[in-house]
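Action item from last meeting closed. Structure (558 res):
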């Protein structure tokens, strides 16, 4: 024995890695098949193996350890506003783009949104920062289609599966990324308070600068307090206009490089020092007379960009479900192997209660997210479109709001080792609040849900039809459903209780899905712990008599 070797290292747990993330998740496999994308199972099985490799998971660590750096000027003093990323970031982006996570639903095919949702959920178990530019690029397509000239030029690059991070005019690139910027210092979620202004450029001047691309060009002056992914090739923003009597916010497309090859006057002031999502660059910018192209009608910027917002909110649900799944797998993997007081943690009753509660929450988030994705696939059906109108804000509120507590509980399963930066739980914990804040905070989502019910009687009908599919076999579910629908039939818009309504809607839909599709030991435990009584603020409150061992066996197949 050498000096100072006072002990041997034992009773520790090897990292959760080199496992197929798709094969380990029966609930995701089942949801993929029933929601209409079973043909994608083989591809997702291969992707799950690739994402679960140790070297892939380590890319997430590196991308968050070596965070983006902003370079405002080159060595000769020219303004460049370039963001430098670690090679791990680019490898993650290449994986996401290469698998079409930014574009596949727009290329057609049955179940394309569901297949893409499963893919996104798997990537959410690896690294969340790189999902941000992918989400915005994916969500930009419906908005850009409102501007045919821009769509014709840009969509082939946006839909390309070649990741091209080079800072070049779009004509010279193999693929493109799109970002967005709506939030300003004085307004936050109240985008109508934005002060950024856009003035039309005279057609003769615009044509002299940009030739045939000189139509609908504006000069933009102002700022954005949050300008997501400044390395993107273009951004969608909102600015105040007063054009042809249409005063109000309009939507604009601001390319990084102008059609004449010059850099646009978008000045990146600094990158945000965020709590989480640290691998991703978020910035503050000033528009010093930047050129922007009108998207949609003047004064109709909010409805135009909401074409983008509904899809980004879907991804908030998917991203949170993926991060929660990741936290669960790390915790359960650890608890099965760590011995305390003479037996593995996962065999101890109170720990089983905590882990099973987390497993129920994760599975419920997954099935809701995948069902919501099918609504997007079937948006031509008015009933499915209306169900999406309800479940998108409600799901974003509840699933994303449950995430931070979920991450904290999973960290506690691992204990002190989970609270240090060597553990992936620390990064996951920091990631989980962002989806609740970004793209509309919890309050904004709940108010949006109220608007859906108050403006559209069909909203209650769509919800009732979905809940009816669960039948009448569970008396507690039947009572919960009846009370919810009765309250919706009578309820006036009650802002004060909007969060409670959103919670009730999501829990009812999650319970209905689990009653229809999950094993009885899962669905009965969910109903007993979420409908028969309120879910509460912590995990590990399951009532007695449940089959926790079966729940945990299903939660992670190793």
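Sequence:
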């Amino acid at each position: 024995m050498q000096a100072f070797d006072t002990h041997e290292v034992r009773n520790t747990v090897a990292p959760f890695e080199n496992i197929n993330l798709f094969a380990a998740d029966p609930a995701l496999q089942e949801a993929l098949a029933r929601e209409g994308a079973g043909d994608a199972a083989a591809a997702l099985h291969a992707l799950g193996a690739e994402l679960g490799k140790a070297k892939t998971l380590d890319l997430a660590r590196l991308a968050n350890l070596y965070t983006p750096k902003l370079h405002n000027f080159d060595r000769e003093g020219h303004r460049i506003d370039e963001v430098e990323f670690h090679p791990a970031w680019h490898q993650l982006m290449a994986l996401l783009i290469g698998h079409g996570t930014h574009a596949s639903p727009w290329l057609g095919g049955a179940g394309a949104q569901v297949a893409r949702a499963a893919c996104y959920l798997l990537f959410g178990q690896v690294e969340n920062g790189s999902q941000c530019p992918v989400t915005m690029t994916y969500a930009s397509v419906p908005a850009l289609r409102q501007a045919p000239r821009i769509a014709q030029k840009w969509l082939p690059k946006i839909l390309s599966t070649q990741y091209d991070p080079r800072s070049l005019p779009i004509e010279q690139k193999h693929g493109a990324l799109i970002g967005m910027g709506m939030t300003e210092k004085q307004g936050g979620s109240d985008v109508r308070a934005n002060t950024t202004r856009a003035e039309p450029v005279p057609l003769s001047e615009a044509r002299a600068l940009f030739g045939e691309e000189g139509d609908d060009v504006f000069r933009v002056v102002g700022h954005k307090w949050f300008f997501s992914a400044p390395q993107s090739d273009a951004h969608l923003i909102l600015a105040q206009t007063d054009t042809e009597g249409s005063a109000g916010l309009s939507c604009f497309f601001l390319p990084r490089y102008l059609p004449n090859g010059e850099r646009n006057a978008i000045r990146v002031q600094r990158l945000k020092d965020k709590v989480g999502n640290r691998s991703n660059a978020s910035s503050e910018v000033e528009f010093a007379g930047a050129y922007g192209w009108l998207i949609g009608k003047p004064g109709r910027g909010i409805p135009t960009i909401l074409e983008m917002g509904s899809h980004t909110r879907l991804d908030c649900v998917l991203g949170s479900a993926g991060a929660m799944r990741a936290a669960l797998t790390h915790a359960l993997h650890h608890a099965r192997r760590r011995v305390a007081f003479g037996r593995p943690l996962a065999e101890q009753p109170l720990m089983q209660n905590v882990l099973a509660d987390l497993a129920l929450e994760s599975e419920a988030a997954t099935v809701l997210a995948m069902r919501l994705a099918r609504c997007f696939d079937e948006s031509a059906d008015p009933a499915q479109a209306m169900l999406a109108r309800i479940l998108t804000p409600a799901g974003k509120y509840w699933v994303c709001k449950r995430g931070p507590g979920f991450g904290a509980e999973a960290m506690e399963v691992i204990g002190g080792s989970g609270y240090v930066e060597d553990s992936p739980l620390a990064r996951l914990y920091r990631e989980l609040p962002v989806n609740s804040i970004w793209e509309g905070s919890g309050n904004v989502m709940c108010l949006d849900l109220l608007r859906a019910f108050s403006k559209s009687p069909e909203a209650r009908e769509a919800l009732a039809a979905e809940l009816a599919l669960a039948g009448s076999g569970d008396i507690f579910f039947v009572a919960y459903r009846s009370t919810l629908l009765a309250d919706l039939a009578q309820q006036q818009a009650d802002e004060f209780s909007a969060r409670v309504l959103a919670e009730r809607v999501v829990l009812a839909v999650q319970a209905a899905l689990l009653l229809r599709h999950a094993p009885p030991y899962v669905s009965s435990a969910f109903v007993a712990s979420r409908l028969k009584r309120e879910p509460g603020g912590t995990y590990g409150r399951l009532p007695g008599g449940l089959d926790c061992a079966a729940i945990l066996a299903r939660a992670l197949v190793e």
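Note appended to the action item: The chain has a mean pLDDT of 96.
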